[in-house]
Amino acid sequence: MTPSRRTFLTGLLASPALMRLGPAFASEGRALTMPAIDEGTVTAGALSFDLGLQSGEMEFLAGRATPTIGINGPYLGPILRARAGEALSLRVRNGLEEASSLHWHGLHLPAAMDGGPHQPIAPGASWTAEFPLKQKAGTFWFHSHQHGRTAAQVWSGLAGVIRVEDEEEGALPLPRTHGEDDFTLVLQDRRFGADGAMTYAPDMHDLMAGKVGDVMLVNGQVGAHLPVAAPLARLRVLNGANGSIYRLHFAGDVPFVQIASDGGLLEAPVMLTEALVAPGERVELLVDLSAGAPLMLRAEVFGAEAPFAGSNGVRDVIEIRPDRARSAPPALPDRLASLPPVPAATGATRTFKLGMTGEGLMGTPVIDGIPFDHGRIDFTVPLGAVETWIFENTSQMLHPMHVHDVQFRIVSRNGQPPAPREAGLKDVVLTQPGERVELRMEFTDYADPVSPYMMHCHILEHEDQGMMKQFTVV
After folding, report:
1. How far apart are the first and last CA of the chain?
2. DSSP 281-314
């Protein structure tokens, strides 16, 4: 039987005790390092960023070098900081020995600038994406989208964060000082060999369930802690994992507040004791530290096969260590952002069936029974249309579905309205077996009869196997 969403959130099957780290890790016991903020430079009226894809090494295991790839560094990339409305120019130089790409995940932009499979960058070549930043304030990201190699390249480190700011968010009494009370946490898990290598060699289970590691990384670090000298901490959390879904919670079920989802601020704060975050999703959380006691952030980890196989256990993510007790932070406003109502549909209703080729768990994950074809445009959307998309999960597995170009609104799950934490702007939605999820999205500004956008499962192993469609806006 398919478990209810609440059953899933509270854990499928009994989870083992916290995983113990075996080997010594280089960052154990150290303070967490934040990714560097890149403010860009203004050139010819545009905010310009230079991003270099490069091979490197990291010392994850103490005394052992791990081959990696990164962006302007050996592993992961910087946080690109920009304001809504600015013109962006993003120059990407490929210093790798294979083709790659950078997709600007969550941004509304022309299809030819999207950085997907149709914008590959050859070794030694450069590519520049230019577009106006038409976003509300929020936490977005960029990562490899080289078809057939996306999972391997992200596993090796090819990802970074985009932080968008605007006047609406800036007027709120929220923490926003990077590295002091505002922290970016890129959550991943990896597997390491005895020699320190984290080789990407997926087996049949990895291809079915998504590749799940046994060691938690935060910003590429293992076992680090987060010192905080403020009564309230803002955590900008990105699930940058290949295949892992995280049920985030604090030891002792300490409550926290979610203020934002994929596309930016929610209309109102939402009090929670747990947050389910699938690959590609972002959440922004506020944690009250005024009591001065340390808090351990934990994650129960699930692969795509969780509905029938259960969880992969609970892991420590990071301990937050306030420096002392402080006065309680001021109360949050009842309203955070002004979101327009879910738009009325004016265009097509499209139903996409998420399943497998073959029967049961055999075969590969696909949409509507057919794998992705780079040369096939699956459908076209009229410019200006407000469409209804329905994901019907006919498989036995979980699929977090991502749509390029637009932020959508969740209309319903199995006919029921979305939970408050999912009622904002989204670009990834997690679907369970047997679930029917209805979305509403508006296609504005950009039309291109040649360059397509993608829609796909964000379990990267599923994406690379062909659980993806492409569409044009005309």
Report:
1. 42
2. -EEEEEEE-TT---EEEEEEEE-TTHHHH----E
**Which of 228-264 are b and which e, b meaning 16 or more Cβ less than 10 Å from the residue's Cβ?**
bebbbbbbbbbbbbbbbbbbbbbeeeeebbbbbbbbb
b/e map of 195-223 (b: 16 or more CB within 10 Å)?
A: ebbbebebeeebbbbbbbbebbbbbbbbb
pTM of the full structure: 0.94
Q: With pLDDT > 70 as the criterion, what percentage of the chain qualifies?
A: 95
Centre a 10 Å sphere on the Cβ of residue 421 and count the other Cβ atoms it contains: 17
Give the pLDDT confidence of 220-272 residue by residue, as tens digits: 999 999 999 999 999 999 999 999 999 999 999 999 999 999 999 999 999 99
Q: Are 281 and 400 in contact (CB under 8 A)?
A: yes
So what's the pLDDT on residue 22?
60
The number of angstroms, rounded, from the C-alpha of 87 to the middle of its chain's C-alpha atoms is 24
Of 324, 327, 351, which Cα lies nearest the Cα of 435?
351
Span 371-412, pLDDT tens digits? 999 999 999 999 999 999 999 999 999 999 999 999 999 999
CA dist., res. 137 & res. 84, Å (int) = 7
Pair 178, 273: CB distance under 8 Å: no
